[in-house]
Structures are given as C-alpha cells and as structure tokens.
Amino acid sequence: MSTRVLLLLALSVCMAYASYGGSRSHCMCRRVRERYGPVKAIQDIQIYPPSATCDNMEIVVSLKNGLQYCLDHRVKKVQELVQSLQKTRGLQTR
Q1: Which residues sit opposite 54 in a β-bridge?
Q2: pTM for this predicted structure
C-alpha cells in the first residue's frame, strides 16, 4: 500500500511541475515589437527586469486608447525611448 501512495505522490509532483512549466517561462510578453508608434500616444511604460518567473527584461507599453504591447529591449531605438521617457516622465523599473 505504501508503494502505491509514494508512486501517486511522485506522479502528482511531476504533474504539478509540468503544469507550472518546469522552467522560467511565465513571461508577460509572448511577442515583442521592434517599433513603436507616436510617443504622444504612449500613456505609460512599465519595465520588468528578469525575475524568477521570466528570464527576459520586459517593456510593456500602454497607450492612451487602452491598447498594450511589448517592445524588444535589445533594439537601440527602444532603449533610447525608454531613457528619454525616464528622464522626462520619471518612469522607473518595477
């Protein structure tokens, strides 16, 4: 009987680990853009550094019309935009 319980427990742990993803793949951004629209349309930019749940730095742009999208942090123009907005709007990394 104890072998069955241990086997069931081991199976449960494996299933829980597999459903969690088994790796750090719970990023908010599934796809990223290399370009952005007019800066005047941007309401907010949230910057999330790499964490225990996601290996990537994520930049989430919120527009005044309610839409959101992610930018590729490796693109030079995106880095310049973030630096510019941090200076003018006081945006900070979360």
Answers
A1: 25
A2: 0.63
